[in-house]
Write a structure and sequence with these properties.
Number of helices: 8
Oligomer: single chain
Structural class: alpha/beta
Order of helices and strands: HEEHEEEHEHHHEHEHEEEEEEE
Helix content: 25-40%
Number of strands: 15
Largest sheet: 4 strands, mixed
């Protein structure tokens, strides 16, 4: 049967029984349901979404929510999947990470979520590493901010965060150190604390020396109410690399190790 020419509709109020409007509405219903365009225009000149348009808007909104959720996960913390050798692992979110050779890795910005590692050995990792970024700083920041924070610096307490610890009555030397120096200490690298230790000893308060290897290049003068306490010589040490005495103790100031004063820092 031949196509009937689409009539010009009237501006009659809705609902209208005019045959011209009925034919026009039928054609527009077909356009709304089966058309590939996102919009159609009704007989009153109003632009409306088609079924395709609604689906496209829904999919775009869902993708936006998914992107927002992935960003939320990324900013909320990280989830450990396991050691690379125990894989393969599929990354279902951007906050997931794996460990290989005592280094931590997460997906880089150019790799889509859903990536699956291709093997469990050095050969496959050589290919997979192109999809990863090393995240030592990320995990350090998260762990220091967790209930494991004080344990990482071998500090006494109830497993609080590093923030809780360094703002407590017994202030940690980490309060005075830059993030780079904190990472250096935790990483087992001997770290120069000359300036920071002197600043701590000027504050007239007890200071805790976290586990680690330190050194100074000048004498340190301890103020009247200053003190330096640490976990003992097997866990914390300060190497004197200056040509003079390492510490000059003021009236009331003292140094104490974690073993009833027998271990010097």
């Amino acid at each position: 049967m031949a196509e009937v020419p689409l009539p010009t509709p009237t501006q009659a109020p809705v609902p209208s029984t005019d045959i011209r409007n009925a034919v026009f509405a039928s054609a527009k219903l077909d356009e709304e349901v089966t058309g590939s365009g996102e919009f159609y225009t009704d007989r009153l000149g109003i632009k409306r979404l088609t079924n395709t348009g609604r689906n496209n808007q829904f999919n775009a909104a869902q993708q936006e929510r998914a992107d927002q959720f992935q960003q939320f996960l990324l900013s909320s913390g990280y989830v450990f999947l396991g050691d690379y050798e125990d894989g393969p692992f599929q990354f279902s979110a951007r906050n997931q990470y794996i460990r290989y050779n005592d280094q931590y890795y997460r997906l880089n910005a150019t790799t889509d979520v859903g990536f699956t590692t291709t093997g469990t050995d050095a050969i496959s990792f050589a290919n997979d590493v192109a999809h990863f970024v090393l995240m030592d700083g990320d995990t350090l920041r998260q762990n220091l901010g967790s209930g494991e924070g004080t344990k990482l610096i071998v500090a006494p307490g109830n497993g609080g965060t590093l923030y809780d610890w360094i703002n407590g009555q017994l202030r940690s030397l980490f309060y005075y150190l830059s993030p780079a120096k904190i990472a250096s200490v935790i990483g087992g690298v001997a770290t120069d604390i000359t300036t920071e230790l002197q600043a701590a000893m000027n504050d007239n308060r007890p200071v805790w020396l976290p586990a680690g290897q330190y050194y100074v290049t000048a004498s340190i003068a301890a103020a009247t109410n200053s003190s330096l306490t640490g976990p003992g010589p097997r866990l914390a040490s300060i190497d004197n690399r200056s040509s003079s005495h390492a510490f000059i103790i003021g009236a009331g100031g003292y140094l104490r190790g974690g073993n009833s004063g027998k271990g010097s820092q």
